[in-house]
């Protein structure tokens, strides 16, 4: 396996960036954009990471680095203040960051970082993502991210992503929606395996009489790269719009994506997340990105469309997106 490029401290063509508490989808967008930028400028990058995201993302950065210009180095820093000092001492004029929700004062531009990440620095914090014009969101994530590990294929499986979070509860999986998913899986001979949030008692009641298999029992999630590798073994996946589903697409697994709201957002358009696709994605569109918009009929239609598309195009179709 290729190794990270070791950079001279005097090297001029070094891009500096940082990550605080980045979700899986935002990490994928950030690293893909960084790779595109490094390729176009023949540069290398140093990304400073707080401990939590370093643990979750170091392997992902390492694998992205293998096809990223002159390489990416991840550097762990112990706390907010040490991150601040590392950014200050870097001497960079631009500091590229991902969409770190918990560290931003606002979820819409202009983004202002909470103390002490950027306070008092002369450098400009620049969001390397689709919101800054998408200039580095070309090509496909699999042009940069190679999954060297090949897990045993779990045939006839449906990976079901459970979402039960306090943030945006209108996007949480409901017992009614889960019941429809289980009915569709049974119709097409797919065995469900669960991941994401732990199953609540309300959801377990729907699964009464069904042998429940979880990808990561007891919420024992590994790092992002390992999750992508593990996910790549499954036949089809389904879930409500989330970073977990971004990992599915990066893994090359055919995906039914519920509550896909981005198709009608002016600043992003129909090509939102297209860079992730290397297989078939069926987007079940929503007016307001909420589960109440998703009917039983739409879910059953999504399964029908997916299974038909797989028969016609196969799993390795180069990134086919179907909106319904």
Structure overview:
It is a single chain. The protein has helices spanning 24-41, 51-65, 80-89, 175-187, 201-206, 224-231, 243-251, 296-313; strands at residues 14-19, 44-49, 72-76, 94-97, 124-127, 154-162, 191-196, 234-240, 255-260, 280-285, 320-323. Helix 1 packs across helix 2 and helix 6 (224-231) packs across helix 7. The longest helix has 18 residues, at 24-41. The model is unreliable at 1-10 (pLDDT under 50). The relative contact order is 0.13. It contains eight helices and eleven strands. With 324 residues, the chain is an alpha/beta fold. The protein starts with 13 loop residues before the first strand and ends with a strand. The strands form three sheets. It has a six-stranded parallel beta sheet with strand order 7-6-8-9-10-11, sandwiched between helices.
- Low-pLDDT runs: 1-10
SSE sequence, one letter per element:
EHEHEHEEEHEHHEHEEHE
Shape: globular
**How are the strands of the largest sheet arranged?**
7-6-8-9-10-11
Number of helices: 8
Task: For this entry, give a set of tags.
324 residues, alpha/beta, six-stranded parallel β-sheet, three-stranded parallel β-sheet, 8 helices, 19% strand, globular, disordered N terminus
Which helices and strands, and how do they pair?
Layout (H helix, E strand, L loop, with lengths): L13 E6 L4 H18 L2 E6 L1 H15 L6 E5 L3 H10 L4 E4 L26 E4 L26 E9 L12 H13 L3 E6 L4 H6 L17 H8 L2 E7 L2 H9 L3 E6 L19 E6 L10 H18 L6 E4 L1
Parallel strand pairs: 1-2, 2-3, 4-5, 6-7, 6-8, 8-9, 9-10, 10-11
Short description:
This protein is of the alpha/beta class. The chain has helices at residues 24-41, 51-65, 80-89, 175-187, 201-206, 224-231, 243-251, 296-313, and strands at 14-19, 44-49, 72-76, 94-97, 124-127, 154-162, 191-196, 234-240, 255-260, 280-285, 320-323. It is 30% helix and 19% strand.
